[in-house]
From TrEMBL:
GO terms for molecular function: pyrroline-5-carboxylate reductase activity. InterPro entries: 6-PGluconate_DH-like_C_sf (IPR008927), NAD(P)-bd_dom_sf (IPR036291), P5C_Rdtase_cat_N (IPR028939), P5CR-like_CS (IPR053790), P5CR_dimer (IPR029036), Pyrroline-COOH_reductase (IPR000304). It is an enzyme of class 1 (oxidoreductase). This is Pyrroline-5-carboxylate reductase. GO terms for cellular component: cytoplasm. It catalyses: L-proline + NADP(+) = (S)-1-pyrroline-5-carboxylate + NADPH + 2 H(+); L-proline + NAD(+) = (S)-1-pyrroline-5-carboxylate + NADH + 2 H(+). The keyword NADP applies. The keyword Ion transport does not apply. The gene is proC.
Length: 280
């Protein structure tokens, strides 16, 4: 059961696409009763967030020290800037952080060790890996605790990310593998929808009808899976009548060794994640 206990004060440094999605989830939950401060480089981006309830939106081009002020006043600090910008930001805010602050990384490829080295022992670090469905409250977020993060620290960060979806707690060595499944996974689904749409067009449907069929089939199947509580294999069995048309189609897909294709694809993504972590 998801907790409805209020969240402590929050700062989101770099409330761009992912940080902004998490911000939307926090605001929609109504749990941010102690306020949220969000920073962005430009006034235009900051103005887009200014009307959100309980949010103080800061433009760094107007207030250059805005990240420091936001971090100093927060119990949880989310770091949402681009990975290359993380070390400089951490050096900037480190002197201002209160002891016991929880710093949460949204930055792909930046290790907990980097955060802990630059922030010191009085700050708890948690590394997160959300995915883009956070925008609609349907994220999967992986969380990995740093060396000084307590169970209570992880629990409050979990509550924060549960405002925009589901949460999985893993060791840091599983963050990159998780990113190849849930992080990149929406792109895999979109690619499958693209290809099914092309197949429909190839059978004589116009693009609008082809898109409607393909997209709503995926949306409907996902909703059925969500509401039924059944395993995908069981739902597939129910659609696949013996000696019927679906069975013939499934046989073709299985003959293409989709299990091997997905294993190879996710292995390739993992290899690239490790290259990026090493600065490649």
């Amino acid at each position: 059961m998801i907790s409805t206990h209020p969240l402590p004060s929050i700062a989101i440094l770099g409330a761009g696409s992912m940080g902004g999605a998490v911000l939307q989830g926090i605001v929609a939950s109504g749990l941010a009763t102690h306020g949220v401060t969000a920073t962005n480089r430009t006034r235009g981006k900051a103005d887009e967030l200014a009307d959100l309830a309980g949010v103080t939106s800061v433009a760094l081009e107007v207030e250059p020290s805005g990240n420091v002020r936001a971090a100093a006043s927060a119990s949880i600090v989310l770091v949402g800037v681009k990975p290359a910008m993380v070390p400089d930001l951490l050096r900037e805010i480190a002197p201002a952080l209160r002891a016991g602050t929880i710093v949460v990384s949204l930055a792909a490829g930046v290790t907990i060790a980097t955060f802990e080295q630059l922030l010191g022992p009085d700050v708890a670090v948690v590394r997160s890996m959300p995915n883009t469905p956070a925008v609609v409250g349907k994220a999967v977020t992986g969380l990995a605790a740093g060396s000084s993060a307590t169970a209570a620290d992880v629990a409050v960060v979990r509550r924060l990310f549960e405002t925009c979806g589901a949460v999985i707690e893993v060791g840091e060595d599983q963050i990159d593998p998780l990113s190849t499944i849930s992080g990149s996974g929406p792109a895999y689904v979109f690619l499958l929808i693209e290809e099914l749409t092309k197949a429909a067009i190839g059978k004589g449907f116009d693009e609008a009808d082809a898109r409607l069929m393909a997209e709503q089939t995926f949306i409907g199947a996902a909703a059925l899976l969500d509401s039924s509580g059944e395993r995908p294999a069981e739902l597939r069995r129910r659609v696949t009548s013996p000696k019927g048309t679906t069975e013939r189609a499934i046989a073709v897909l299985q003959a293409a060794h989709l299990d091997e294709v997905f294993a190879e694809a996710t292995d390739a993504a993992l290899a690239r994640a490790r290259e990026l972590a090493q600065g490649g």
